[in-house]
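--- STAGE predict ---
source: upstream dedup step, 1 unique chain passed
mode: sequence only
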Amino acid sequence: MRKMKIPSLVVAGIAVALLVTACASTSGEPGSASSAAGPTTSASSGVGVATAIDGVYRWSTTEEQAIGTAAEEAIGMVWPDDAIASVPNTFTMTLDNGSFTWEGTATPQVDTGAYTVEGDTLELAWDPPMTWVLTFTYAADDDGTLHLTPKRGVDPVNEFVFTLNPWTKIG
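--- STAGE serialize ---
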């Protein structure tokens, strides 16, 4: 396994380029994914509204998952060698009353935004300058671990990052 050190701005630029490329190659109306029902709310949540999945979650991605056959099977593409620098990565997502913070160990930035939960659907909307709105269905284990499935056109890179491994509830 090789270790590469690339400045975080380069890694962020690569991630944005991959995201733009993935989004540009999507055509038509994506199908919806379904999953086993997790904890639900009876109405749509929003900022300032507690949800059944409020908490702190952690998950990781590995270099092995991002290269070769594993990535191709997981997201339908092979990552360029220079993008592999963003893995391994451990992500922490804090969901708190309709607001979230998201950070990874491979980059120094902390992203923020709003989220909503309706039934078994989780929608994450990043604050500017990011413009991502990602929608997933989720199922929750008894210990609070979340399993996400992409919904409504989540690009392959974000599908890899957010759904390949379950989110373990740590707080």
